């Protein structure tokens, strides 16, 4: 795993993705965290990584509130629940690594 991809972090934080508990690096955007758990697929998805394409939209629940978020902009927080993801992101998460 290329550590330069990620913002510096000292610990992993728990989040849920589609009901599944995972540990991801603190201080990182949701998209980086999804890349962390699925490096071989998300890395090759159609993502601009800078807020332009909107291919990374997710629906999250955090602090009791539900909202849509741009995963390459919004940072993951402990306890955050990612309830649904864009079609592009879903395809990346479900893709088999080559
Ligand atoms: S990856 Fe393009 S807007 Fe997030």
Walk me through what this model shows.
With 98 residues, the protein is α+β, with helices and mostly antiparallel strands. The protein has one domain (3-94): Roll (Ubiquitin-like (UB roll)), CATH 3.10.20.30. The protein has three helices and five strands; from the N terminus they run ββααβββα. It has helices at residues 30-37, 39-42, 87-94, and strands at residues 12-17, 20-25, 57-62, 65-70, 81-85. The structure holds FE2/S2 (inorganic) cluster (FES). FE2/S2 (inorganic) cluster binds at residues 47-49, 51-56, 70-72.
Short key terms for the protein model shown above:
single chain, 98 residues, alpha+beta, Ubiquitin-like (UB roll), 3 helices, 5 strands
In short:
By secondary structure, this protein is of the alpha+beta class. It contains three helices and five strands.
In the CATH hierarchy, what is the superfamily? Beta-grasp domain
End-to-end CA span: 16 Å
Q: Helical content, roughly?
A: 10-25%
What is the typical, i.e. mean, pLDDT? 93
CATH architecture title: Roll
């Amino acid at each position: 795993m290329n550590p330069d991809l990620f913002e510096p972090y000292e610990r992993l934080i728990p989040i849920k993705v589609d009901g599944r508990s995972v540990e991801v690096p603190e201080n990182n955007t949701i998209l980086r965290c999804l890349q962390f758990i699925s490096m071989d697929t998300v890395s090759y998805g159609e993502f601009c990584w800078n807020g332009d394409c909107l291919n990374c939209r997710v629906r999250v629940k955090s602090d009791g509130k539900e909202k849509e978020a741009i995963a390459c902009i919004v940072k993951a927080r402990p306890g955050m629940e990612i309830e649904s993801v864009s079609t592009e992101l879903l395809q990346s998460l479900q893709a088999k690594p080559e």
